[in-house]
Amino acid sequence: MQFSILSHESNYTMSNKYKILFCSPHSSAFTKPVHKALIRLGYTTKVFDYQKGSVLSRSMGLVINQFPLANKTVNKIVPLYINKQLIKAVRSWKPDIVFVIKGAEINTETLLHIHKSRIRLINWYPDAMDFWEWIKSYSSYYDYFFNMVYDVEQRLKKIHNHTAFIPPASDPDLKRNLERNFPITFVGQYSKRRERYFSEISDLGLKIWGYEKWQMSSLRSISSPNVSNERCLNIIRRSKIVVNVLSGDHDYEPDVINIRTFETLGRGTFLLVQNHWLLDKYFTPGKDFITFTSPADLRAKAVYYLQHEKERDAIARRGWETVKSHHTFEIRLK
Fold first, then answer.
1. What is the Cα–Cα distance from 12 to 29, expressed in whole angstroms?
2. Per-residue confidence (pLDDT) for residue 271, from 0 to 100
3. For residues 292 and 296, what is the distance between their CA atoms, to the nearest angstrom?
């Protein structure tokens, strides 16, 4: 289905008097910076965590841990309860906009209920084409369905009238940290491509934090378990170099600038990032960061910039200034 929103377009002229119910998990890297940006822009905002929902749903999660046989029953009850809590929040608070990041746990009945209340539904979706079937089915329930992945947006705009590619952003530090005691770091998910690239620099002081597949890889000796979003940013602040191999692998490579690019530059840290054509649309490679095209190229540039601190720092400073001027969450949300 495809909703028509033109009939009430005039009711939604841009105004910071809007009340926005922001639906995003507390564990998401987007929740805190987007919420802060909405507040700084003057909106009245509440956060609804659609993965935890309430004390009751969290208690049900504890039941699963203690009694695994209850898993199937609880897995049915918790989503229903969270959706009821979301409807309750909409009814009691009466927002003008329900703004969702991702939202796989929000069912179609809830979305229909919100839409019938003439509340604008917006999704800013971060995942790639791996989730296309969900995107195709659920995007039509949203008035606007924005994408952080370019090729997803290009495909979606053929079936949805109100979509756009809007990349991630950063909540940049006001001051740059200059105390950096990690030579090279990476925080993020495992992929075979990343393992292949990072094997070339594993002897240069590389340290990896991420999900358990890293601990089962050839780089397990330099890998640590995944960390919180705040801990991730602190690691970036303390790094001389952050290396970023974009997501995807041999079968599919999304057209995307991942959030780690913006987070790294926003911390004022030097970034070595895999080359991609989208980077040229938003940054100046060689000025804001340095790109690489192969594992050997990554190694050569990592060695060079570990040895040339002044050049490294000058590039990191320019990247930080670019993000502060052009790529904050306030700019994106406007």
1. 28
2. 98
3. 9
